[in-house]
Amino acid sequence: MSHAFLEQLWIARYVIMNGIAMTVSISLLAILAGSVLGVFVGLALVYGGMILRLLVRAYTDIIRGTPVLVLVLASYYVSAAVGLDLGPFSAGVLALAIFCSSHVGEIVRGALQAIPKGQTEAAKAIGLTFTQTFTSVLWPQAMRQCLPAWVNTAAEMVKASTLLSVIGVAELLLRTQEIISRNFMSLQFYFLAGGLYFIVNYGIEHFGKYVERKTALPS
Residue 40 and residue 108: Cα distance in Å, rounded? Predict the structure, then answer.
């Protein structure tokens, strides 16, 4: 590692830290909002009426089939066109949350449908209401099944956050490009940015494994 790079890294340390903080903030907000919305999407796909299921199915298919960059640009420019001054940060988080919700919805749907129907019938037989059956029998099992796929989706949100640079959100990639425009050390700083993204995703993955171990049923 050259002395010149270390010198430039020291000069740019606060810019990089601000970029990391912005990336983590974007990712956490998108994951949180997308997960909450995704749970309702999944419930609608499993328990909704025919019309609701068709509408939600169309929503998930359209969103999952649309590139994230298109969603980001649409969220930013369409909101401005209709008079909603969301700003780049809010528009970007909204786009990522919508994208996340379509994936989480499918994860929740698959987890709920994987639970044997006999468990629901047994719960009815002992007098449990649907709400009691769902909260005490179905949802705890579904959450355990959802976790690995949800962790993958969360990691995808971190990577997708780089796309917000195109609308001017000062996340890690945009900050890295600003640094490179001043010192022209593109290879070194892009490698650094890649390593920082890896560290964030590595943390998410290991947090998911920790929660999975804590919630696993005793064998």
Answer: 9
Hey, what CATH class is 14-215 in? Answer: mainly alpha
Q: Which of 69, 144, 76 is nearest to 111 (CA)?
A: 144
pLDDT in tens, 153-210: 999 999 999 999 999 999 999 999 999 999 888 999 999 999 999 999 999 888 888 8
List of E strands, the chain: none
Residue with tokens 């490698």: 191
**Whole-prediction pTM value?**
0.90
Distances (CA, A) of 36 to 33, 92, 150, 171: 5, 17, 12, 24
Q: In the numeric block, which tokens belong to residue 199?
A: 């560290």
Q: How many C-beta atoms surround the C-beta of residue 159 within 10 A?
A: 13
- Quick one: which of 28, 26, 16 has its CA closest to 207? 28
Q: How far apart are CA 161 and CA 64, in angstroms?
A: 16
C-alpha span between 91 and 77 (Å, rounded)? 9
Distance CA 97, CA 32 (A): 8
CB 64 within 8 A of CB 103: yes
Name the token pair of 9.
């890294």
